[in-house]
Amino acid sequence: MQYMSTRGRISGLDFKDAVMMGLADDGGLLLPQQIPALSRGDIAALTRMAYPDLAFRIISLFAGSIPAADLKHLIDRSYQAFDHDEVTPVVHKDGIYVLELFHGPTLAFKDVALQFLGNMFEYLLKERGAHMNILGATSGDTGSAAIYGVRGKQNINIFILHPHQRVSPIQELQMTTVTDPNVFNLAIRGTFDDGQRIVKEIFGDLAFKSRMALGAINSINWARVLAQVVYYFYAFGRVQRATSCEEVYFSVPTGNFGDIFAGYIAKRMGLPIRRLILATNENDILTRFINQGDYSTAQVVPTPSPSMDIQLASNFERYLFYLYGQNPGRVNDAMSRLAATGRLEFTAEELACVGRDFMAGSATRQETLDTIRAFHAATGYILDPHTAVGVKVGKELTGGEVPLVCLATAHPAKFGDAVREAIGQDPVLPPVFRDLDKKEKRCELIDADTGSVREYLQKNALA
Ligand SMILES: N[C@@H](CCOP(=O)(O)O)C(=O)O
């Protein structure tokens, strides 16, 4: 399997080089040159497997340059860090299937890919006798999952930018209380979009990227998306076993378009997904795109689901590549237009194509809290606010024709304030969160400016 960039000036990379490159050196995002197509029989066999075996089979299709025994070992190690035998169990509540993705060390879906990517980086660096400085941006969950994926590892330093006071208190503590010497937290005076822009600008200076040996943990790194493809297959198998269904809907709370893009790859591989339901909070640029063809940026609004307080979703470029018939020239034009005008427009024909794969809707703050309340009253189960956005939109857009699987992207205890406001009680705090506020913290507050981050990296990077 070889990898190419959405912008067309990088191609023929193997999996290892694609993982190490992160953001493509031409400013685009890396994608496999072909997506393997699976038959119904292949899918039936795969979806009967235990999670680590399924992960090995799916990831092997894209990572042929890693010897099978090594890949298997990396995957098995990654999922041993989860507190549930099934890794991503599916529970049936109130007529929907909840795919619980929060059984990893930081209690969010990001662990599924970042435990794997942390181990993969360690493996590749050892093989190359090299070191790496990871630079990433987070709106709340990626940061701690990435930190837990590499804390204490040899030859890796990690630098994470989070928007100051725009993540939940627990999310902030999960990052800033990790005081291993290789972990650096930077709170930026700005939004997640500022952080993501800074990361991309720094990666765009190729001489600096190479001199500093920069690595990416955001979903700009293909390995992140790939590891997330697996749980769509897993959930389909579990729901099919329970219902004998032919197809399912997946409802995906969406910010940076990485998780839902993994579902899109699963669909392109042949997984029978009737539609992917994209669910946004009040930061609804992606919903406006799908429903009205209006992809125009607005101010970021703080919401009870802060991990989705994003305007410019980086993986959207990967989707555009397919929407534009795999034509890098059109992607380049669109990205230049977007940078210049802050908007993109789409033809009726393109929107009809979008509609064959996606449906979309959004939830206001009040609707999110009402959904947590109603679901709790009906089932006793507490949804986190991001999952609640997906449940609200999924239920609104489907009518029981085929099972609805809602991705539960985080544990509710990460968002205690929203849960308390919705149901008048605190979610039970898992042991890993207890006394987090009493631990030593380490974090620098800096301006949301590329120069300041570069300077910080220069002083603290591994050389
Ligand atoms: N919602 C994310 C934002 C970063 O997205 P990523 O998938 O590109 O890492 C977060 O929680 O940080």
UniProtKB/TrEMBL annotation:
<dbReference type="GO" id="GO:0009088">
    <property type="term" value="P:threonine biosynthetic process"/>
</dbReference>
<dbReference type="GO" id="GO:0030170">
    <property type="term" value="F:pyridoxal phosphate binding"/>
</dbReference>
<dbReference type="InterPro" id="IPR001926">
    <property type="entry name" value="TrpB-like_PALP"/>
</dbReference>
<dbReference type="InterPro" id="IPR037158">
    <property type="entry name" value="Thr_synth_N_sf"/>
</dbReference>
<dbReference type="InterPro" id="IPR036052">
    <property type="entry name" value="TrpB-like_PALP_sf"/>
</dbReference>
<comment type="pathway">
    <text>Amino-acid biosynthesis; L-threonine biosynthesis; L-threonine from L-aspartate: step 5/5.</text>
</comment>
<feature type="domain" description="Tryptophan synthase beta chain-like PALP">
    <location>
        <begin position="96"/>
        <end position="329"/>
    </location>
</feature>
<feature type="domain" description="Threonine synthase N-terminal">
    <location>
        <begin position="2"/>
        <end position="79"/>
    </location>
</feature>
<keyword id="KW-0456">Lyase</keyword>
<dbReference type="InterPro" id="IPR051166">
    <property type="entry name" value="Threonine_Synthase"/>
</dbReference>
<protein>
    <recommendedName>
        <fullName>Threonine synthase</fullName>
        <ecNumber>4.2.3.1</ecNumber>
    </recommendedName>
</protein>
<keyword id="KW-0663">Pyridoxal phosphate</keyword>
<keyword id="KW-0028">Amino-acid biosynthesis</keyword>
<dbReference type="InterPro" id="IPR000634">
    <property type="entry name" value="Ser/Thr_deHydtase_PyrdxlP-BS"/>
</dbReference>
<comment type="similarity">
    <text>Belongs to the threonine synthase family.</text>
</comment>
<dbReference type="InterPro" id="IPR004450">
    <property type="entry name" value="Thr_synthase-like"/>
</dbReference>
<feature type="modified residue" description="N6-(pyridoxal phosphate)lysine">
    <location>
        <position position="110"/>
    </location>
</feature>
<keyword id="KW-0791">Threonine biosynthesis</keyword>
<dbReference type="Pfam" id="PF14821">
    <property type="entry name" value="Thr_synth_N"/>
</dbReference>
<dbReference type="GO" id="GO:0004795">
    <property type="term" value="F:threonine synthase activity"/>
</dbReference>
<dbReference type="Pfam" id="PF00291">
    <property type="entry name" value="PALP"/>
</dbReference>
<dbReference type="Pfam" id="PF24857">
    <property type="entry name" value="THR4_C"/>
</dbReference>
<dbReference type="InterPro" id="IPR029144">
    <property type="entry name" value="Thr_synth_N"/>
</dbReference>
